[in-house]
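Dig into this one:

. . .
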Amino acid sequence: MTTLDPTRHDTLPATAPETDDEERIAGWLRKYIADLLAIPEEKVGLDVAFHRIGLDSSAAVAMTGDLGDWLGCEIDAAAAYEYPTILKLSRTVMLERRRTGHGA
């Protein structure tokens, strides 16, 4: 299992998902948050900070763990703090998966 390092700051600025892999990750995060908070997916902004959406720290840690399980890799729990929006987190995870040979 590969560990994704949230301290790497060589990611691109996130404005919208740019690849299918990134879009898939962003979609998973959006659905996860919407289901967790019992709100419509369209109410979950892709570029809104997780804490502003309503995720507390324990929910953010659980989310990164569940995302890692879904992707089959380990994601540091601090990733949600280092990359605090769906776009930033999905971009970083996608780039790190590519760098380590686990993504498209």
